[in-house]
Design a protein that fits this description.
The chain is an alpha/beta fold. It folds into two domains: 2-85, no CATH class; 89-217, Glucose Oxidase, domain 1, CATH 3.50.30. It is 28% helix and 21% strand. The protein is built from six helices and nine strands. Strands 5-9-8-7-6 form a five-stranded mixed sheet, sandwiched between helices. A two-stranded antiparallel ribbon has the order 1-2. Strands 3-4 form a two-stranded antiparallel sheet. A hairpin with a 5-residue loop joins strand 3 and strand 4. 20% of the residues are buried.
Length: 254
């Protein structure tokens, strides 16, 4: 996931002072038709006037010309303002079956490092404080379902418990855009209900992902306890007493 923030300059055309209407020339008298022509020029000829873009500057200059024709002095004032833009959003599943998941950045999310964030995914239900009970999420990416509490609260709860990012999946078909209302401490994105359920299933079964498992082990265990080799099994063999049959397990792993 890659998010970037910056600042743009807003160019604003405004009139200063008022001149008596009698000083305006008769040919510049405003009419309904001329007002509609201005709207058409701004909306259709120039088009969307996003702040900081060439179209915004063109619209400001157009308005300045019109105001000057009515005899008003015009000045341009520039100032800076907080600006948010998601320049790149990417969620990738690593491991034996890598794939890319379509995601939307939540408005005002924090950015990831340039190299992104790779971590274990831990499902946390709806992301409420009580949903974290019994779950260790420090250093993990949490996966929460949309609903009950706001995106902002979900992100704040995840950050407070040491998560490095949060993915919120929709509670109905399709993906959804949203806002955090204020800048978050960790990156936050949304994915569709379909992709979210697939991530949830993989997280609940452990994913069969050696890279993800090793990342979790590195987080929780010292170096001397790290396994040299990892093998997967559908179930642990048990002896008649219900305990792990170590001999059978060694034979199965041989």
């Amino acid at each position: 996931m890659g998010i970037a923030r910056g600042a743009l300059t807003l160019l604003l055309a405004l009139w200063i002072g008022l001149l008596p209407v009698s000083q305006a020339t008769a040919q510049n008298e405003p009419t309904g038709a001329s007002a509609f022509a201005h709207v058409q020029h701004l909306a259709e000829t120039i088009g969307p006037r996003v702040t900081g873009t060439a179209a915004e500057r063109q619209a400001a200059e157009y308005l300045a010309v019109q105001l000057r024709q009515y005899g008003y002095p015009v000045e341009f004032h520039s100032f800076q303002f907080p600006f948010f833009e998601a320049r790149q959003v990417q969620v990738q599943v690593t491991g034996a079956s890598p794939r890319t998941v379509t995601a939307e950045a939540l408005f005002l999310t924090a950015s990831t490092p340039p190299s992104g964030i790779e971590a274990e995914v831990v499902a946390v239900g709806l992301g409420r404080p009580e949903d974290y009970e019994g779950r260790r999420v420090t250093g993990a990416i949490v996966l929460a379902e949309r609903g009950v509490i706001t995106f902002r609260e979900k992100a704040a709860n995840a950050a407070a418990r040491g998560a490095v990012a949060i993915i919120v999946y929709n509670n109905q078909p399709g993906i959804i855009a949203g806002t955090l209302q204020q800048r978050s401490d960790i990156p936050a994105v949304t994915v569709s209900q379909e992709d979210g359920r697939q991530l949830l299933e993989a997280a609940q079964r452990g994913g069969g992902d050696e890279q993800g498992l090793r990342a979790a082990l590195r987080r929780d265990l010292p170096n001397f306890m790290q396994p040299r080799e990892i093998r997967w099994t559908e179930r642990m063999p048990l002896n008649p007493n219900g305990k792990i049959d170590r001999a059978a397990l060694r034979a199965e792993m041989a």
